[in-house]
Amino acid sequence: MALDKVNAVVIGAGAAGPIIAKELAVAGFRVVLLERGRWHSPWECRKDDLRNQRTAILGNAFGPEDEGNPRVFVDDRGEARVVLPSEGGYNNNAACVGGGTLSYGAMAWRFHPDDFRMKSRYGPVANSTLDDWPITYDDLEPYYEKAEWEIGVSGDDSGNPFKGARKKPLPMPPLKPDSIEHQLLEKAALKLGLHPFHIPMLRNSVPYGGRPACMRCRWCVGFACEVDAKCGTQNTVLRTALATGNLELRTNAMTKEILLDPGSRARGVAYFDQNDRLQEQPADVVVVCGGATETARLLLNSRSKAHPNGLGNNSDWVGRNLQGHLYTGAFGLMEQQTYDDLGPGASIAICDYVHGNPSIVGGAMLANEFIRLPVQFMNTRPPGVPRWGLAAKEFMKRNYTRAIAVQGPTQEIPVWDARCQLDPQVKDRWGIPVLRLSGGRHEHTVEIGDYITYKAEAWLQAAGAIQTWRRGGGRGLSGGQHQAGTARMGHDPKTSVVDANCRVHESDNVYVADASVHVTNGAFNPVLTIMAIAYRAGEHIARELRGKGV
Amino acid sequence: MKRRSFFLVAAGAIVAGACGNRRTAPWRALSPQEVAVLDAWCDALIPSTDGTPGAREARTARYIDIQLTRRFKRFRPQYQQALAAIDRMAAGRFASLTLDERTALLQKIDRGEGDKAQWGQDGGREVFNLILQHALQGYYGNPRHGGNHEYASWRMLGIPIVPVRGRGVGYGA
Fold it and tell me: Chain B residues with CB inside 8 Å of A47's CB?
């Protein structure tokens, strides 16, 4: 039996869903937001280095649970195996209210203007689906600003000449740049003629939005913030949306499929509620914000006579071009102690190598890394140091507090065969077909990553490192927490899934608004771009609903 | 300040209580003989001959034993096979060998030179890496999971313990 019809049903309360819900609820529309996970409160934050969202050795802290949520991963030899959410091949993000924004490191990057026009800037790349976005940096600029001010960003990028114009400064100053790492790296970058600046972060450096400032602990990326100083969707826009009375958030609600009428319209969604009962939620519009992997899965699982291979998939583009970021960089050991326990650790960046590198398509932002907990450092060593025994322990003892890591997210070259499909056999605990992940990175992505390691190493050497070593990357499938690209935005329905307003080409009233729509994924952490796209799509959907006299 | 003290005392009591139980609790997944071999194996991975606590003092084997009943349940047969195989290589005396003797045997397994009938086609490399990673987790990870007893590795590294509320909390709690 169907529930009462609403104006919009939004699937996924991660980085994007609550923004769409808030834009619509504030505009007076009735909205239901479905989230497969649950709420987590700051005071249940466990500083557990073996069980969090970054180091999931003993499980993911913020979902999904290992039990009942399998995927199938096809490795580079073509062998398929079932993987659990806490295993690397799964390419998990998170499944909870706030999604990844509850536990992220919270870098708040605007993409570079050229990140939206990679094909125009560099020309076509062989064996790649590299293309321009149908929208520009200028189209998104007002929405970047809105995300920065409504959700809250601290930092100062005025020292960065390699960026798009911003109309308004960031609402909060950076955290005090007092860490030893920051000071060493800043001096070194200036010495090299580079342009260091304070990383923009979705983190309170001063009280903002009714929440306190960061207390500078080392338990940041991968953890929920104990004092609620990180700004996610769960403690900002979602609160605003719920306060309107127009939004109903249903947690532990697993969406099964989008229900399609004959023709091009959806009538709502079917989902399993918190008691695992199948429910039907009718709505005027459906907005999918499940993250690049689960959004693709939902589209592929939503079939009808007009959409036999899944909604939006008549041209076979859904689930393809899966991309994340190849992180490469270098480690340096200093003569002096550099560990000062001043979190979050990452604080200083350069964008000198984002574009304009010789013989390279794009590049990467470089920054110092978040504080590495001992379990995250225990397998880090230069070539020649043994993995175990007294020498391994001695290395750790001497160098854990003397190491600096500099790394960056290489803008990946999209690959058609890096993809999510439905597995023909494996199902989750609700009986819904799960994803089968296959493919790998473009060879040029690895070349860019290698190029970046030399830049990172040079920065560390200038900072006085007495020993450095580089860490490049491989061609394994990329997705993970920066997953993107599986429902590409474009003008042509033959080579994209959604239009420039995030509406699925094949439907009048289904939208995708998350990183799935990214044509390319920038040389930066993608979350602020996801948020900006959600603001822009939310505004458009509100206009459409109003135009139809709803 | 008072509030902070309360949390520290409360947390201290919980930690002390939990450790106390673990000290006297029987082994969960492995037999006492298997534990003795595992303990000697982990001690060779992270020795204490430099004067700071090693895997043994940090109760790394306890961490592994606990996890073998939980997250690592699926690895139990591999553990039992590997522990029996290394002990056979030492004529049933692995646990009482010197550090150098144990290290020499384990280096063979690390290189994949274990007897294939005992260790499988890869000569023991996979199970060696599995146990190495688990040992490192038990040594460097959070004490709440049964290892890193009394913050042994964090003290060695010279970093503060987990602050319960606020930061800058020392070991004195």
Answer: 142, 162-163
